[in-house]
Every structure is written in structure tokens, then in C-alpha cells.
Design a protein that fits this description.
By secondary structure, this protein is of the alpha/beta class. The protein has two domains: 4-72, no CATH class; 77-123, no CATH class. Helices cover 57% and strands 9% of the residues. It has seven helices and four strands. It has helices at 8-18, 25-36, 44-53, 59-65, 77-91, 98-106, 108-118, and strands at residues 4-6, 40-43, 71-72, 121-123. The longest helix has 15 residues, at 77-91. The radius of gyration is 15 Å and the shape is globular. The N and C termini lie far apart (36 Å).
Length: 132
């Protein structure tokens, strides 16, 4: 069975676009149930991103109360080693600007990828954009 690692945009876009808490509470319950069954998790840095982003619509409350135990720590050697490998790869890529590389190093995405590389399959809604 695959275990999926959820990016912040899965939570944020679901809440803002398709599955707000007042319209689709079953969606959020299903996330909790699938996490309880070991099918999905997220990471501590995504939790921090949700806490910085939330605009008072319930996502922050849900993340801090209902989903908190499924935001896994990135503080382990395998994740640090994967993060180091990913950062080295990014530094060596000439198609990215220094600003893009710096931003990538500072956001949760790089840690999410490191955690996925070290542990699980990643689920995201990211797109490659040329010229950054």
C-alpha cells in the first residue's frame, strides 16, 4: 500500500475551492480516516505553512486540532540527507536563478520532497514554470 505525503496546496485549495468545511465536511473526515489508516500524512513544515497562510476560514483550526498528529517531523537523519542531496541538485541547475534556488531552500516544498525521497510517495499540485 502506498503512503501519500500531502503538500499544503492540497489542504488550502481544497478548502478554498472545492471542499470547504461548511460544504464538504466528509472530505476532511476522509482525510483524517485515511491518515489514521496510515495511507497519508504531511510534515511539520506544511503545518507551519498552513498556520502562516490561514485566513480564518477553519483550516488552521482543523489542522491544529484534528490533523495535528499526522504532521510528521522532518527532524531525522534520512530527511536531512535527502534535503542535502536535493539542495545540491538545485544548486547545480543552471536553468534556475539564484533567487529561485534561495526561495526553494527556504520553503516547505524542499523539505516535502526530501521527506518523500526518504520515506514516501508525494502528492502535490505543483507545476514546472520556465524562466524562474
Amino acid at each position: 500500500m502506498s503512503k501519500f505525503l500531502l503538500d499544503a496546496n492540497i489542504f488550502i485549495e481544497a478548502n478554498q475551492r472545492y471542499y470547504s468545511f461548511d460544504i464538504a465536511p466528509a472530505f476532511w473526515y476522509a482525510l483524517e480516516q485515511n491518515a489514521e489508516e496510515g495511507k497519508l500524512v504531511s510534515i511539520d513544515r506544511i503545518h507551519q505553512e498552513i498556520n502562516r497562510f490561514d485566513d480564518g476560514d477553519g483550516l488552521k483550526i482543523w489542522a491544529n486540532n484534528e490533523f495535528i498528529k499526522w504532521f510528521e517531523s522532518t527532524d531525522d537523519e534520512a530527511v536531512f540527507n535527502a534535503y542535502s542531496d536535493i539542495m545540491q541538485w538545485a544548486i547545480n541547475q543552471n536553468q534556475f536563478t539564484d533567487a529561485a534556488k534561495s526561495e526553494f531552500a527556504s520553503v516547505a516544498d524542499s523539505w516535502l520532497i526530501a521527506c518523500a525521497k526518504a520515506r514516501i510517495t508525494q502528492l502535490s499540485h505543483m507545476k514546472y514554470i520556465t524562466g524562474i
